[in-house]
């Protein structure tokens, strides 16, 4: 059976979630009550029997390393293969590579030594639950050079504006890659390629002074390469702004959407933290809310997401909000359309109200 090795390339992902990325990269941002953004792509890989994964990081990756540890939660703490966290290491004085090609060049040994026939390159901003073995089967069936994955979105949101879009012919061959704002075929920043071909691409790009592997090796050579488009039809969310984070988090309160992402036969895995079940005091009122373990609730919570260890005091009201780990909402505080990062404290009788289109964001460890 053909094997796949994975590369999660965070180099070109900007930290655009404002207060949520002050102290961490986007891949480490908490999502959906108990997960981090990185959990979804890692789980997709391990569920697809990918057992060798490299992570290209450049900045603010301490929180990410703390979360991932040795990859045990994803069964990647193994003697052969496993999880390789590869921060910048530019020690070669003769290295002329630039952009994300610096990572590919300096870590070319990972690609060459990987016990795999194919390399899957992806980012962390596209939330989905996908079987990469199906992508490989599709890739082999049409004998493609490169297979790129896309989502045909019915409704375009602001987060799609800067995404690459794909023009595809009747044989699912990519004829153009562009940024047309009205186009609905959104490229998910995932491509699959044979190991020998990606090695040639990396070396050729560096020799010609290029900076971006996908743009300079694939987008610029559509006429020479057979670039096949694989359509992903499951639940999808692109998170590249505070607004998109807030809106896509709220969608998970719909049970149908939640079940499309969190499947029994393809679970989303994360770092295990053993805590007591959440406690609902007699006067608490909770409706349409995701509540992680370890919470203590004595107020009213609706249409919200509470991460682990959140405390909601007597008479406090939380609506349409995202409250991250270990936040303390004291008695009679009111929060509406708010995102609280980890370890925040909202004092008694305080009121914070944002807009549905622009939530009020409180950075980590803030006391108000």
Automatic annotation (TrEMBL):
Start and end residues of each Nucleotidyl transferase domain: 19-154
EC number, as in UniProt: 2.7.7.27
Top EC category: transferase
UniProt GO BP: glycogen biosynthetic process
InterPro entries to which the protein is assigned, alphabetical: ADP-Glc_PPase, GlgDAde_trans, GlmU/GlgC-like_hexapep, NTP_transferase_dom, Nucleotide-diphossugar_trans, Trimer_LpxA-like_sf
Domain of life of the source: Bacteria
Keyword list, A-Z: Glycogen biosynthesis, Nucleotidyltransferase, Transferase
UniProt domain Glucose-1-phosphate adenylyltransferase/Bifunctional protein GlmU-like C-terminal hexapeptide: residue ranges: 284-354
GO function terms (MF aspect): glucose-1-phosphate adenylyltransferase activity
Family: Belongs to the bacterial/plant glucose-1-phosphate adenylyltransferase family.
Protein name: Glucose-1-phosphate adenylyltransferase subunit GlgD
Organism field: Salibacterium salarium
């Amino acid at each position: 059976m053909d094997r796949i090795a994975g590369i999660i390339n965070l180099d070109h992902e900007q930290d655009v979630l404002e207060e949520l990325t002050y102290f961490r990269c986007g891949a480490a941002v908490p999502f959906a009550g108990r997960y981090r953004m990185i959990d979804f792509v890692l789980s997709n890989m391990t569920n697809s029997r990918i057992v060798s994964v490299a992570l290209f990081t450049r900045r603010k990756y301490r929180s990410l390393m703390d979360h991932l540890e040795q990859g045990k939660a994803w069964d990647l703490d193994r003697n052969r293969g496993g999880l390789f966290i590869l921060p910048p290491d530019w020690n070669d004085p003769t290295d002329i590579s630039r952009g994300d090609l610096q990572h590919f060049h300096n870590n070319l040994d990972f690609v060459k030594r990987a016990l795999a026939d194919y390399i899957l390159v992806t980012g962390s901003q596209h939330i989905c639950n996908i079987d990469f073995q199906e992508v490989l089967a599709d890739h082999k069936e049409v004998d493609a050079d490169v297979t790129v994955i896309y989502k045909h979105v019915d409704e375009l949101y602001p987060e799609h504006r800067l995404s690459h879009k794909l023009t595809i012919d009747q044989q699912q061959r990519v004829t153009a890659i562009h940024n047309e704002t009205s186009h609905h075929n959104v490229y998910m920043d995932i491509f699959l390629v044979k190991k020998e071909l990606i090695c040639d691409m990396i070396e050729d790009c560096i020799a010609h002074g290029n900076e971006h592997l996908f743009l300079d090796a694939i987008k610029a050579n559509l006429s020479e390469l057979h670039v096949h488009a694989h359509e992903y039809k499951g639940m999808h969310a692109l998170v590249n702004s505070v607004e998109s984070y807030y809106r896509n988090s709220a969608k998970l309160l719909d049970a149908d959407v939640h079940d499309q992402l969190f499947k029994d036969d393809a679970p989303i895995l994360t770092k295990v933290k053993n805590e007591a079940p959440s406690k609902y005091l007699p006067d608490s009122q909770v409706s349409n809310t995701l509540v992680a373990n370890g919470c203590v609730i004595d107020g009213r919570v609706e249409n919200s997401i509470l991460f682990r260890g959140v405390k909601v005091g007597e008479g406090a009201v939380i609506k349409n909000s995202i409250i991250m780990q270990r936040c303390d909402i004291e008695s009679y505080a009111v929060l509406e359309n708010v995102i609280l990062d980890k370890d925040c404290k909202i004092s008694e009788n305080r009121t914070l109200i944002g807009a549905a289109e622009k939530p009020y964001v409180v950075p980590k460890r803030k006391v108000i």
